[in-house]
Amino acid sequence: MTIQRENAVDFAIPYYYDSAAILLKKPDPNAKKWRTLIDPLSEYVFLCIFLFITVTSLFLFVFEKYTPYYRRMEERDKVRGLHHFSDSLWYMYGALLTQGGEHLAGSSSGRTLLSSWWIFCIIMMATYSGNLVAFLTVTKDKLPFSDIAGLVELGSYKWGTQEGTVFETIFKSSTRPDYVKFWKGVVANNKTNPNILSADGDVQVRLVMEGNYAYVGDKTHFELTMATNCHLAMVPSDIVSMQYAIALPNNSPFTKIFSDEMTVLFGNGLFQMWKLKHWPKHGMCHNDARKESTPITLIDIHSSFYVVAIGIFVAFIFLVYECFKKFHSNHRRRLLQDQAKQTDYEIEPVKTKSDLEDSMLY
Fold this sequence. Notes:
This protein is an alpha+beta fold. The chain contains twelve helices and six strands. The chain has helices spanning 3-6, 43-66, 85-96, 108-137, 148-153, 166-173, 177-192, 201-210, 219-226, 254-268, 270-278, 298-361, and strands at 10-11, 16-25, 158-161, 213-218, 232-244, 247-248. The strands form two sheets. The protein has a four-stranded mixed sheet, with helices on both faces. Mean pLDDT is 79; it is low at 286-291.
């Protein structure tokens, strides 16, 4: 039912209410499996943890280095401990992994700081571990967008709708920025692929199955399509609220008769009963109906192997740096020794000549 159609015909009371939706192909679930260790926490949380561990390590280093508690210890700087920033940083990192470190704080200020840090680490690790278990055991498709505005902002997707439908009228006449951008994209894409505005819904679904394509249409049609195709996903949309009714000629005497009968059918609950009986059930896809837990495969945890590989690479860089530093230190020591020997050689002839002149004088 639309305003334009109501001007041409009469409608009985609506017998079905529907809304718009966006149909797209489900993203590949294995495409982002490498983010398994990152997804339990947001990037903002990881950034805060990184900054917090650095700042807290700095405070621990200052507390342990300048506290009067160690004033009677001689040559303390030559002994490794939390009064060195590197040791403080490694201890904080080990505590974050609930492992701790070799050195312990002796001062009250250092112990107080570490006690609060351990509480923080326990909370963070419990939160991370719980979310990680959920991510490994529960598979939930994360769609790339949630509305028309998000769709048009993506550069990797094309979109379209059926020609001659209410959706074409809405997008063509709307002044909303996201709808205007949507229609411009439809017109541009239709020049290279005329099926973008195909009136055949099956053609639109075929474009969706090819990937990186979004189809805007009736939610009911999408539900029926998804009942036999488990590779599709649907995003609800508030583009338009649609009503389905029986159309009759203007001023038809049967309009009231049909409306009264529809009212009786609604009151008896027959429409709801027929829908429950004949409508496709949700979650009937064989891939989604899992009656038992599935084992975790290598692709689910392959991000942990990436961590080990990154650790080996960083450790190798540190090894090269330590070897270079050692070589530079030995080379500098040899230069200083050579300079000292050269100085002694130059001083010795002068001293011999002076002794000879003194002996001749006597």
